[in-house]
């Protein structure tokens, strides 16, 4: 692979950083194209040619005739199957590989959608409905419980080494506060797992693409989180009463 054969289209969301984390952990040089969700650039015609769903992240592999890949799980699998000869993130052993992909599908089918619902009702709707917020945050915590049990006696989800499974689940869990769950201390294995991944330099670099780690900024500056909530609400609900 030549330098910068991959272009990553992303924004600083929990979904967006999954692509940059995978690229950084694999050590693949790449270009970054910031696709601003606030400016609705993800719905512009040029980007819809790359991802017809109009969502980030997406990649273009210029070494393969500008081949486009969208959906974060598909991106992770594509990159690992094509650019991970050392099995850094995806083992070749068929059982271990299957286990990794199972957790990636768990993230895509369960963990991510649950956080999306929680984010919407906790952060984005002007009207806060307590019983709905409790329902969506309880759902997220249920998935945390599953992860916590899976980590019993292990450092990572599959065997004792970091894989694509951990890379995909981590961005959601480490930003639990954004989804209305202030603490995950009750999930001791999960808490230790997050702390362990926090120490990975490549993952931390990935969190700072395309700009400084947004969740860290929000955690340390509550006023920034409040400003962001108001911005998103203005975008989501601008045309509600028109």
From TrEMBL:
Q: Which residues form the GST N-terminal domain?
A: 3-87
Q: Which residues form the GST C-terminal domain?
A: 93-223
GO molecular function terms listed in the Swiss-Prot or TrEMBL record: transferase activity
This protein's UniProt keywords: Transferase
Q: Which InterPro entries match?
A: Glutathione-S-Trfase_C-like, Glutathione-S-Trfase_C_sf, Glutathione_S-Trfase, Glutathione_S-Trfase_N, GST_C, Thioredoxin-like_sf
Q: Does the record's keyword annotation contain Lipid biosynthesis?
A: no
> Which branch of life, at top level?
Eukaryota
What range does the record give for the signal peptide? Answer: none
The family annotation for this protein states: Belongs to the GST superfamily.
Q: Which named protein is this?
A: Glutathione S-transferase
**Species name:** Rhizophagus clarus
């Amino acid at each position: 692979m030549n330098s910068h054969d991959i272009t990553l289209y992303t924004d600083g969301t929990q979904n967006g950083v999954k692509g940059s984390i995978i690229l950084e952990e694999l050590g693949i040089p790449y270009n970054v194209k910031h696709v601003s969700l606030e400016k609705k650039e993800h719905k512009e015609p040029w980007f819809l040619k790359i991802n017809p769903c109009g969502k980030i992240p997406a990649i273009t592999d210029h070494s393969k005739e500008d081949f486009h890949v969208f959906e974060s799980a598909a991106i992770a699998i594509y990159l690992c199957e094509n650019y991970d000869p050392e099995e850094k993130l995806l083992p070749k052993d068929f059982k271990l590989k299957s286990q990794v992909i199972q957790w990636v599908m768990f993230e895509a089918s369960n963990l991510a959608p649950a956080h999306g619902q929680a984010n919407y009702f906790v952060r984005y709707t002007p009207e806060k409905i307590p019983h709905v917020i409790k329902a969506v945050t309880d759902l997220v915590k249920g998935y945390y419980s599953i992860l916590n049990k899976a980590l019993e006696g292990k450092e990572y989800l599959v065997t004792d080494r970091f894989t694509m499974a951990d890379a995909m689940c981590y961005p959601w869990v480490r930003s639990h506060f954004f989804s209305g769950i202030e603490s995950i201390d009750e999930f001791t294995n999960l808490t230790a797992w997050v702390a362990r991944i926090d120490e990975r330099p490549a993952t931390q670099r990935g969190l700072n693409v395309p700009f400084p780690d947004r969740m860290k900024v929000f955690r340390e500056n509550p006023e920034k989180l409040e400003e962001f909530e108001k911005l998103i609400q203005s975008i989501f609900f601008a045309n509600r009463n028109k």
